[in-house]
Amino acid sequence: MNNPHLIYYAGEPNIIVSPSSPVSVTAGSTVILECAAAGDPPPSVQWIAPEDSRSNLQQVESRPGLFKLIIEDARTSDQGSYTCQARNLVGTARESVQLTGNLALNSLQRF
User: Fold this and answer.
1) Which of 2, 4, 38, 54 is most buried as measured by Cβ atoms within 10 A of its Cβ?
2) CA 70 and chain centroid, separation
3) Are the beta carbons of 74 and 57 closer than 8 angstroms?
4) Is this structure's pTM higher than 0.90?
5) Which DSSP string corresponds to 26-89?
6) Average confidence score pLDDT of the chain
7) Average pLDDT value for residue range 7-21
8) CA–CA separation, 110 vs 77, rounded Å?
């Protein structure tokens, strides 16, 4: 008697981040970083911000497998490495984007 066997292939997460690093921004601008993630089983995804960044970061899954990190009103404290991490039962994948640029707010000049 034949016993059917179910073969299940699991795969660790694959991720792609955009835009590519480094990302140069100016003070006061809005920055959107994207992370496309796939795996079997589907991974859980999170963006990890530098410790000094402000707490007004927003993580949004805009469609299945596409995760955005929105940084509004960028400032000097927001500079650093932002890492997209995708994790499932098989493994963990990470990709980072470096945020740089002229993020100091301009002061008024006296005449």
Assistant:
1) 38
2) 9
3) no
4) no
5) ETT--EEEEEEEEEESPPEEEEE--TTS-S-EEEEEEETTEEEEEE-S--GGG-EEEEEEEE-S
6) 83
7) 82
8) 26
Let me know: does 5 contact 85? Beta carbons within 8 Å. Answer: no
In degrees to the nearest 10, what's the CA dihedral of 70, 74, 75, 80? 50
**Lookup: tokens for 96:** 């980072």
Cβ atoms of residues 13 and 37 within 8 Å: yes
Among 9-13, 18-22, 94-98, where is mean pLDDT lowest? 9-13
Question: Would you mind telling me the total number of residues written for the chain in this entry?
Answer: 111
Stated as kind and residue range, the H or E segment containing 11 is: strand 11-18
> CB–CB of 31/51 below 8 Å?
no
Q: Which amino acid is at 30?
A: T
* DSSP conformational letter for 104: S
Contact 83, 47 (CB under 8 A): yes
CA-to-CA dists, residue 106 to 31, 41, 53, angstroms: 19, 48, 19
Q: Quick check: 105 pLDDT over 90?
A: no
